[in-house]
Amino acid sequence: PRSAGDPGPAGRAATSPEAEPPERDFWYRRFHPYMDAAFQRDYLATPRPERYARYHRELVSFQERERLLEEARPPLAEAERAAFYRLDSAEACRAWLQARGRRLEEERLP
Predict the structure, then answer these.
(1) Which residues of 50-82 are buried (b: 16+ CB within 10 A; e: fewer)?
(2) 3-state secondary structure 32-44
(3) Can you give the pLDDT at residue 73?
């Protein structure tokens, strides 16, 4: 028998981030570098069936940022990638990449 406050195994699995490894969540696996610690905690604490509905705007933004990152030429070095991941929007990422492109062009000029 369970205590009155115990939701049972099904309830615990739906609300406990420990119940399911984060690596099993497609969106988390793909975009966790863009998620700060608070977002990761809140996202993983949200029951899996509710995550996309609750965080779809952020996930779409992460997807756009990833597309920008994949298109960046030359590819970003590790330190640049870490800085890119810390930016807070796709617009900020786009502006950062444009500034990087101008800086690289200036470095090539004689």
Answers:
(1) ebeeebeebbebbeebbebbeebeeebeeebee
(2) HHHCCHHHHHHHH
(3) 93
